[in-house]
Amino acid sequence: MKNVIGNNLTLTLFGESHGKAIGGVLDGFPAGVRIDEELIEDMMSKRRAAGTISTGRQEADIPEFLSGIKNGVSEGTPIAFVIANKSQHSGDYNALAGIARPGHADYTGHVHYLGFEDARGGGHFSGRLTAVMVAAGALCMCMLKERGIAIGTHIASLHGICDRKWNEADLDQEITLLNSRRFAVLDETKEEVMVQEIEKARMDLDSVGGILETAVVHLPSGLGDPEFDSLESMIAHAMFSIPAVKGIQFGKGFDFAEMRGSEANDPFEMKDGKVTTVTNNNGGINGGITNGMPVLFSTVIKPTPSIARKQKTVSFTEGKNVEVEIHGRHDPAIIHRARVVQDAMRALVITDALVTRFGQIDWRKGQ
């Protein structure tokens, strides 16, 4: 029953959706990193619910740091923090006791925890715990910022509505643009269309999903390992810790199936005294290790499973077929909020890889 991720930098999660608080312990974080409170608040705000395209549950989500930070600088000791739960409507779940909500972990959680789980609002399986991921990832972003590494994610598509493609020749500006926006699209005209699609799903008592694309720039070559701790496997591990992520691809991903080797390979060249590649079909990773090019990957976010339509399911406590209508406060889409969670977990993986490669002291200057 593991709730820890990472190798030399680890994050431990704890808490439930309707408990007193959720929180985490970030262990292995280097000493001497200046903690940017504005950056942390910005990332936390991007995850918060807002308007009718998100859940009605409003939480401040202000991390309270209990240890590991002094005078705005990391100490090098474990950073423990909590985030209070103040807006629980636990009564919304009374009628759902013992009911397997379609698409949720009610049944599997009941089996795994022998019936002792806190099922309110999904308990420990709730997307509520992604607030902890964002807080931890924001701390890592402070460290990556010092190293000149930048991360950005956009909504590549939402229920068939597509954003424009990355301008790979200027990813720095693209990432800066995305990180300045609350709704993460590169083409600002797509925001209204996507929001309308989410609203339409809400009015239909339904939900929608989509695809998120992430870019990471200014990574040194040499991060990651072959085989079991390849950078792809570490990223995939982190991405699948995010509720609703059901698929991932790197670079051209599944498009490789339609290509020949002559099209798929990235030719190497020397440019300004550095080894680089002409194309970046492999998403900046060869043999599980960064090659110095931008790391590009995308994930599929499934439609939010909590919908108010009548659905067939079972009562696993009574052993019978039933129908369920899920009422309460739920998101008609979570992709616009999941974007910053993806950034955060990617930051955690990169920070872990930097510490693993260069150590607690030399992570700033490792090339």
Main sheet properties:
5 strands, antiparallel
* Parts with pLDDT < 50 across at least 5 consecutive residues: none
Helix content: 25-40%
Q: Quaternary state, please?
A: single chain
Helix and strand string, N-terminal first? EEEHEEEEHHEEHHEHEHEEEEEEEH
* Total beta strands: 18
User: Helical region count?
Assistant: 8
Overall morphology: globular
- If you average the pLDDT, what whole number results? 92
Report the sheet-strand fraction: 15-25%
Distance between the termini: 37 Å
As a whole number of angstroms, the C-alpha radius of gyration is 21 Å
The order of strands across the largest sheet is 1-2-3-7-4
Question: Please, could you describe this protein's structure?
Answer:
- The chain is globular.
- The longest helix is centred in the C-terminal third of the chain and has 28 residues, at 335-362.
- It has eight helices and 18 strands.
- The chain has a five-stranded antiparallel β-sheet with strand order 1-2-3-7-4, covered by helices on one side.
- Helix 3 (130-147) crosses helix 8 (335-362).
- The chain starts with a strand and ends in a 5-residue tail after the last helix.
- It has helices at 37-47, 106-112, 130-147, 171-179, 189-203, 231-239, 261-264, 335-362, and strands spanning 4-5, 10-15, 21-27, 64-65, 69-70, 73-74, 79-84, 150-158, 161-162, 210-217, 245-250, 268-271, 274-277, 285-286, 289-290, 295-301, 311-315, 320-324.
- By secondary structure, it is of the alpha+beta class.
- Strand 12 (268-271) and strand 13 form a beta hairpin.
